[in-house]
């Protein structure tokens, strides 16, 4: 074993960074044995240097992240600060100055992964980011490597723990969205500003990363259709239950039937209770991968948190260090298929639509005609009358999303339709 | 991209081998793009050369596997013949003659993995074997690489599809073992001679491989405690149901509480219906991995079959070919902890014991005394009387297996105990 240590710079020392530093110290011998050389924490860039950081030598702390990545003796930079800048410039600067990079930065990878990949390749460095998607769950490596000889057709999963906690709470207790969000915040599952989670931005970034890797093409955050869960009501949840379903915020990446394009989307959807994703509780994550030869695989585990994310970061650290010692690099960007990303209207899915309608003869016929005119076939209709008003719950067969949303628009214009109470897609069947 | 192809020799052209050859042809462009060079099937060694093999150039077929691996121009040997010899000699010969190896041979890896690893290292070649455990489910790579920065404490799973099919059938239909085995055979889930599956040899080989990788030590097939499922009765299954459990054949690899040894075992066990493994149906596989930082991860998918196994083989082929082009090798054997494997008696577990006893006062006190004398604490007792006879069902708290089996031995000697109707371990709580 080489005795000269590999030098690691840590950018960011919050929940994840401090756990990475702790494990690097407490498990130093194991890491050295697995890598073939010791690893040494050579510097830690933070915003608040005065904060006491247990177990970290104060001499390693700096506020000058740029100077740290430019030192020239750093073998690996671990970036856990998040956000677009200064993270992007720090990572590309690290590549220029001889370091490989392990990152947990989903936002940056989804926004501008191509720039990072290109810089890594130009300088012959590694860019690893298992921690960017679904915390400790191995997903990037299985998709990039284990399934490299297969053809992935679909990735479908729960990739945001906060929203799964909220929906699980709504489902199990009958609570409304606000109430469930309050509980998630109180328990530390939701941040003070929950926008990134509840509006689906976090899940959309992960969907972009997964779709790009799964289909060997470039998918950016802007390519991902996105709906959050703030509009999901207790009534939707109850309606899902009546159908033998529950509601989950799903990230869905699909290859089109003709194989010539891909789609990526994040939205709430009803899935049958018999589907394995329906039983993913609390803040857990789970992802299905469907591949031509492998069939259907599922990966399940804690999708966030300091320790699980640190586990993913350290797994990448070991790989990157081994590559350094072998003077090799791992897999880089694979975007050779150049498959375009189609808009949401092209996605083929099913709708569950609740309508408030006038309780008089002929309404159902009128509504059914609108579906037929848009080429949307109806699977089931449930009609309930109450005091001159009635509700119609329609579940469609599979149709392009554009046809489905066109149907809803036309329904809204019918005199006999008083309102569209809810629209939700149905998946996992 | 390099235009000169990498040459692949295929040893074995059965269910898996023919599927590997088929995908290599139909997906040649994708494989080339992902590897960075085309791959070419340069020879196929078979036992029956006269058999028609669709899509394979007859000129590539040979019965002389030794000559094929000795050719000197082969970059990668794919070994899917199984068994100890001639597979072992062919693999080590391949390493000597410049090839890296992708193998699906669980029996050989569990029996003598160390010899293969040593030969690979001596000649600077790769040895990859994702397909040896749980078919298409990425497990070896996540354990060897994704969790390389973590400390795995436990691996627990269903790793044999045939036995899971049989137990699932017994559970859902109330069928006995023989009847369920007949159905598995009729549907092609069990082989004509089902010994390797039903006696647990196949699962034990996988447990040895998983334990070795998870704990960075050497674990051989002989180190794995093994009980098959041929003794599991419809009555056991019914008894499990009454406890809110089902019966699964589990492979369990554990680090001892003091961290100084490991255990590996395969046996039928009761697990609660609420445990995710309880809902693994038919011939599917699923494996839980518990690691210090990552927490609890689960991997699920088809555990066998031509296509899923071929997916795993081809993922390894891509990795090994990339390494060849980079003149590097992937991770080799990691057995630095040298943790010993403890015998079954040291495993801490729980027992579910059904006793036929005389229906008279004092029997329960007598039985309870035997448990106490062996230091085994009782969790629950259920007593049922019928016509002068009675049955006692005892579920214990956790205790060393030696103490539990000592208790059972002593119970058999009691005059008031007419017989021990069944003993089963209880896991997953």
TrEMBL record, chains A, B:
Tell me the Gene Ontology biological-process terms attached to this UniProt entry: methionine biosynthetic process; threonine biosynthetic process
Q: What is its EC number?
A: 1.1.1.3
Q: Which Pfam families match?
A: ACT, Homoserine_dh, NAD_binding_3
> Which cofactors go with this protein?
a metal cation
Per UniProt, the enzyme's principal EC class comes to oxidoreductase
Q: Which SUPFAM superfamilies match?
A: ACT-like, Glyceraldehyde-3-phosphate dehydrogenase-like, C-terminal domain, NAD(P)-binding Rossmann-fold domains
> Keywords in UniProt for this one?
Amino-acid biosynthesis, Metal-binding, Methionine biosynthesis, NAD, NADP, Oxidoreductase, Sodium, Threonine biosynthesis
Which residues are recorded as binding L-homoserine? 191
Q: PROSITE patterns annotated for this entry?
A: ACT, HOMOSER_DHGENASE
Stated family: Belongs to the homoserine dehydrogenase family.
NCBIfam families the record matches: PRK06349.1
Q: What is this protein called?
A: Homoserine dehydrogenase
Q: Which organism is it from?
A: Streptomyces pristinaespiralis
């Amino acid at each position: 074993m080489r005795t000269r240590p590999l030098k690691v710079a840590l950018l960011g020392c919050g929940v994840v960074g401090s756990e990475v530093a702790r494990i690097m110290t407490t498990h130093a011998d194991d890491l050295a044995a697995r890598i073939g050389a010791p690893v040494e924490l050579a510097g830690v860039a933070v915003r608040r240097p005065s904060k006491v950081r247990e177990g970290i030598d104060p001499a390693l702390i700096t506020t000058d992240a740029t100077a740290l990545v430019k030192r020239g003796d750093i073998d690996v930079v671990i970036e856990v600060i998040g956000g677009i800048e200064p993270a992007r410039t720090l990572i590309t600067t690290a590549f220029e100055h001889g370091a490989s990079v392990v990152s947990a930065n989903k936002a940056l990878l989804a926004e501008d992964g191509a720039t990072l990949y290109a810089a890594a390749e130009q300088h012959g460095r590694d860019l690893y980011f298992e921690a960017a998607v679904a915390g400790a769950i191995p997903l990037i490596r299985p998709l990039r490597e284990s399934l490299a000889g297969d053809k992935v057709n679909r990735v479908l999963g729960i990739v945001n723990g906060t929203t799964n906690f909220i929906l699980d709470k709504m489902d199990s207790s009958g609570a409304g969205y606000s109430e469930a969000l309050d509980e998630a915040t109180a328990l530390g599952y939701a941040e003070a500003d929950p926008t990134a989670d509840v509006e689906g931005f976090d899940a959309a970034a992960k969907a972009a990363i997964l779709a790009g890797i799964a289909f060997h093409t470039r998918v950016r955050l802007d390519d991902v259709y996105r709906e959050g869960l703030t509009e999901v009501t207790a009534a939707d949840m109850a309606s899902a239950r009546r159908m033998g379903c529950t509601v989950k915020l799903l990230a869905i990446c699909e290859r089109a039937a003709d194989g010539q394009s891909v789609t990526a989307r994040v939205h709430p959807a009803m899935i049958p209770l018999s589907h394995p994703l329906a039983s993913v509780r609390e803040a857990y994550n789970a992802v299905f991968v469907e591949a031509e030869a492998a069939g259907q695989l599922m990966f399940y585990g804690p999708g966030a948190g300091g320790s699980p994310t640190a586990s993913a970061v350290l797994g990448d650290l070991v790989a990157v260090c081994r590559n350094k010692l072998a003077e090799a690099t791992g897999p880089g960007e694979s975007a050779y298929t150049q498959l375009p990303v189609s808009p949401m209207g092209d996605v083929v899915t099913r709708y569950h639509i609740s309508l408030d309608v006038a309780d008089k003869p002929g309404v159902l016929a009128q509504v059914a005609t609108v579906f037929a005119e848009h080429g949307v076939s109806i699977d089931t209709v449930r009609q309930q009358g109450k005091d001159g008003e009635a509700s119609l719950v329609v579940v469609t067969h599979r149709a392009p999303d554009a046809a489905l949303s066109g149907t809803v628009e036309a329904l809204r214009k019918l005199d006999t339709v008083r309102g569209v109470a809810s629209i939700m897609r149905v998946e996992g069947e």
